[in-house]
Description:
The protein is an alpha/beta fold. The protein contains eleven helices and seven strands. The chain has a single domain (4-267), classed as Vaccinia Virus protein VP39 (Rossmann fold, 3-Layer(aba) Sandwich). Helix 6 (161-171) links the parallel strand 4 (146-152) and strand 5.
Amino acid sequence: MNTEQEIKEMVKEKYGAIANQSKQQNQSSCCGSGCGCSNVEFSVMSEDYTKLPGYVADADLALGCGLPTEFAQIKPGDTVVDLGSGAGNDCFIARSIVGETGRVIGIDMTEAMIAKAKANATKLGFKNVEFNLGDIDNIPVENNMADVVVSNCVMNLVPNKRKAFAETFRIIKQGGHFSISDIVLQGELPDYLRKEATLYAGCISGAVQKEEYLRIIKETGFANIVVQKNRKIEIPNDILAKFLTIDQLREYKKSHIGIFSVTVYAEKP
């Protein structure tokens, strides 16, 4: 991996390609990263949205790693901002909760994702859901305007996570909160995995240690931090074999490195 800007461009390129794939195509790849992993019939990270109110099949690309809207304590009339909104999946779930009196804003840095999300919103006739192009570490939203922020498997893609959480803090109202699902590590990922660009875009090699992740949130100024869900992710051997030699795969399996999907809640005092 190289500079922050180079990482962003790589992620943007890969997710731009994903925007033009179906959910089925994404599910047959490594966390939707398009690496063409064989014999994988479901997304490694994602969870099932289909039973949640407001679910829109055309907006579900199976790219998340949790169900943040399920834990986000969204209320009717709230203003909700979704960071890394993709094709609009979490935004449409949130919209079903905030109702006609609420507002939902999706932010994504990929033009193709924004176009797909806007097309979905137009088709559904939603007037209180909008999608804006922008980076999570420079969110195009006013100070203190969100009651709730959600994000699903996106913060790990941002090179400067401190800046991203500082921006999240800035846009949340005093007394507001976030619920963010993300990938974190327990144990150091080997260099040969951390340097792999496809695994970065696939939500793995951009992840940081769980303790560091929670420390960044606390040092940003958030309070009442709670891990709402903690789920271990098992990466199938046929995915790892795309990037590792036999010896490296054996070494990795012995290392007991933990890859976890966590959903974290925190409040802005």
